[in-house]
Write the structure tokens for this entry.
Amino acid sequence: MTGLGELIQKIERVTGNVIVARDLAALKRVVEARISATHSPSLQAYVDLLQEDPSDPEWRHLVSHITVKESYLFRGHQQFEALASHVLPQLARALPPETTIRVWSAGCARGEEAATLAIVLAESQHLAGHRWTVLGTDVDLSALEAASSGRFGARAVSHVPPPLLERYFIKRGREHELKSTLRERIEYRQLNLIRDTLPVEDGAFHLILLRNVLIYFRRNSQRRVLDEMARALAGPGWLFLGPTEAMWAISKVLLPRELPGCYAYQHPISEPDPEVSRYSSRTKTRAPARDNAEPSIHRTAPAAVPRATPGPLDLANLVGDLRDGNYADLRDRLHAFMRDHGPGPEAYLLLGMSYDQQGDTEAAVEAYRGAVYLRPDFFHGRFFLAESLRGLGWLERAVGEYRSVIGLLSAGGGVPSVYARELALPDRAQVLARSLAALEP
Ligand SMILES: C[S@@+](CC[C@H](N)C(=O)[O-])C[C@H]1O[C@@H](n2cnc3c(N)ncnc32)[C@H](O)[C@@H]1O
């Protein structure tokens, strides 16, 4: 194995993060800088120097470059709206007033999510009689240092409703600083979700947000992390994942609940709450879909749930965002689009491409499968499915898809994406040539 291959495996063992082909150029740049900074004579010498032990200070330099920090306050606003309208009132009803409500933002990046939680908790009339605290954890010490400062740039606060910005922040030059009344309720700690166990009792938290973290891990790591979350969750507690991270595709420990505009998961020994069950009942009737062999992307597409805020959910806008690399919430918006307009092959193609661009090839495969399931002669969907399968090393299935593409195109059939031009997708001839080349020994 080359030094780089060994390094990629070490990174996955220590952080759980899977390095995929499109991360390689960036990784090489970071590693070259670290080889020079550590005066290592070669890549192999640097890899040997890097200890398996995550407390080795050298990891700090690597981790902040190999983990994705994409976040901003009120990201996934539907989830915060459901928290305010359903989850916090339910917790307030279920827990005696002397109970401190404990909330954990796992994979908190630079504190954007923990700050949002603090604002939503402070705003809740239902929690007026309760104390509450927020714990933010992340593997990346540099991100935690930024989080502890409580300062956020213009982009990070761009989705904060203006009255809340006014109420909870102090403007400091170009940054916004979270007021100390909220900052003092948030504690930050380093925690590697793959290697560490948070030293807390079972059932220590009433609410956990683990959003947009699992997508960077492999299935077996996702399962272990989710089991740990279930252990840390109290009887009436709730877990929120990222909108594209369906837990019932990974683990069956917690119960899926449908809330207005989103899903969440609840501890199985929770008392049924009539207010929440109004929304959950639809989920219960869909529960058998867990064992269905359909791709999880189909299982996760919710039925018509009222959208909290109408937005410009036009597929052409989403195409523009994908083309321009504007990935903020792109997948949430694609899911919302599919909820409103029904799933279609083009939306699944965009979803697959957005996963691909973020390095989540397994999820991309599921999305592309959604596209070709709905439109079997959609050659762009099938070609990208083949490429992703090949990228994952699932060669037999990749070969089958390449053959289908060749069959379609050489018979003069096959339907392209209507957005092929905007997205600079390969044309018929290029797809055919690349598919034939992929089958060469
Ligand atoms: C895309 S950000 C998500 C931030 C926030 N939860 C949100 O949804 O906006 C992913 C975060 O997970 C963290 N992370 C990656 N691997 C981790 C690990 N093994 N343990 C803990 N955190 C990890 C990264 O450092 C990064 O801050």
